[in-house]
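Course assignment 3, question 2. Fill in each field.
Student: A.L.
Task: Predict the tertiary structure for the chain below.
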Amino acid sequence: MKKKIIIFSVLALVLAIAGTLVYVLTNINSVVKAALEKYGSQAVKTHVSVASVEIRLSQGEGAVLGLTVANPSGFVSPSIITLDTISIRIVKDSVTSTPMVIDNILISGPEVFYEMKADGTANVDILKKNLAESGSSKEEQLQQSRKGKELRLRVGKLVFEKGKVHVRVAKLMDKPYIVELPRLELIDIGKHGGATPAEIARTMATALVQETVKAVAMTQGERLLHKGAEDLLNKYLIK
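Answer field:
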């Protein structure tokens, strides 16, 4: 009798695991969309929304469409970052493994909306501060202690290309202009044991913000200096 109970218990556990796996695989688009919005918002401490997700596991491909990061309060533009299309290539054999391996993420045409107020406060600085705080929070430390219980990913290569920055500086009379964003490539994110979705979101956003402030300061430095915006160069280039 005891042996039968054990057998039934094992079968029930197997069925529960199988049922969970089937649910995740058949609803993967909504699961990934919810994860991006949840962990992205946690990382940047502002609202992250995703229009749609299209994952094709049989082909090892996927796409995230219309990812938007809301601007911190007090700034003009409704968004600080928009990523229209994120193309993903997945190592199919790793889907049920830990970490799951994403071979390549390509983000083509990212747009950043840079704003600096008359007092020198920039929206990207607030975003950088939020990213740093989310990385050292108690919640993040708690997640780190549960490594075996959470989704972990390893990203072979992540590329931002053909991006641009919409710049609005109060000391330039708020007249907007556009700066090209250099190609940015990150390698082996989560190389050692994988990274959580929140860690990857924070890595992506931090890298994009850093390149943004460098691009604005370096390509428009002379123009800004002539207009009395020396603080931009002092803040980002003179360390």
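Instructor remarks: The radius of gyration is 21 Å. The first helix runs from residue 2 to 26.
Grade: pending
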